From TrEMBL:
This is Isoprenyl transferase. Binds 2 magnesium ions per subunit. Homodimer. Keywords: Magnesium, Metal-binding, Transferase. Catalyzes the condensation of isopentenyl diphosphate (IPP) with allylic pyrophosphates generating different type of terpenoids. Substrate binds at residues 46-50, 62, 90-92, 96, 214, 220-222.
Length: 265
């Protein structure tokens, strides 16, 4: 039997894989599929810290994070999730120096192309499209058009996304629409309802997220889906995004199913 330098038992890798597989199967077997969230939002956090811990570069961390997306969507499909929103790039990230932003955008563009080429998902962009470079805009538009008729999970790719910016854009769109109809500002103020703003969000027509998962141990939303997450459940996972495993995903679903959701209290 192997021993670690601290005197504890260090099991061989094949045995650890077997135990992990058995434990994952056990958690999955106990999952109540009637309590699975229909819309999951995921804040993919920890790519850079994962890379540093592994002795790699930031670009390698983002690439590993992009490759994890396909696994996540496969797990979602197995558990009957219908909508997944992936926060890939915030509006704050757009202020990074070009030497940092350009490689990240290239990785995101490749990830979006891969999602579209897979053939199983419907890809939809959420974010301020006009803030993105022309080539990134083109990739996002082409992915949405190519997958519009797919019947699989709706995958919202949040690129150039900020929760405050979304609300500003929604109000701006609402004002423009009502002005085009000839409505006055006073009439709009008098009759404004929550649904009026909701209909102009990036996710209009979609259900709000039931569950928001954030990886890397950070316990804040950072502006993610501020309007839509008013009644969402949150699950904060200590694992960096590239290291996120199926068992971590299943634990999040198990935790969600065990909660008693109370809307408005």
């Amino acid at each position: 039997m192997l021993r670690s330098s601290r005197g504890g038992t260090r099991y061989p890798q094949w045995l650890r894989r077997l135990v992990y597989k058995l434990y994952t199967h056990r958690v999955e077997g106990r999952l109540d599929h009637t309590q699975v969230p229909k819309h999951i939002g995921v804040i993919l956090d920890g790519n850079r810290r994962w890379a540093r811990a592994a002795g790699g570069t930031t670009e390698q961390g983002h690439q590993a994070g992009a490759e994890k997306i396909r696994e996540l969507l496969g797990w979602c499909a197995e558990t009957d999730v219908e909508v997944v929103t992936l926060w890939l790039l915030s509006t704050d990230n757009l202020n990074r120096p070009p030497e940092q932003l350009s490689p990240l955008l290239a990785i995101i563009e490749d990830a979006v192309r891969d999602l579209a080429a897979d053939g199983r998902w419907r890809v939809h962009h959420v974010g301020a499209l006009d803030l993105l470079p022309d080539h990134t805009q083109r990739v996002l538009k082409e992915a949405a058009q190519a997958t519009a008729d797919n019947r699989g999970i709706l995958v919202n790719v949040a690129v150039g996304y900020g929760g405050r910016q979304e609300i500003v854009d929604a109000v701006r769109s609402l004002l423009a629409e009502r002005a085009a109809r000839g409505a006055s500002l006073g009439e709009l103020a008098e009759n404004l309802a929550l649904e009026d703003i909701a209909e102009h969000l990036y996710t209009r027509g979609q259900p709000d997220p039931d569950l928001v998962i954030r990886t890397s141990g950070e316990q804040r939303l950072s502006g993610f889906m501020l309007w839509q997450s008013a009644h969402s459940e949150y699950y904060f996972c200590d694992v960096f995004w590239p290291a996120f495993r199926k068992v971590d995903f299943l634990r999040a679903l198990r935790d969600y199913a065990a909660r008693h959701r109370r809307y408005g209290s």
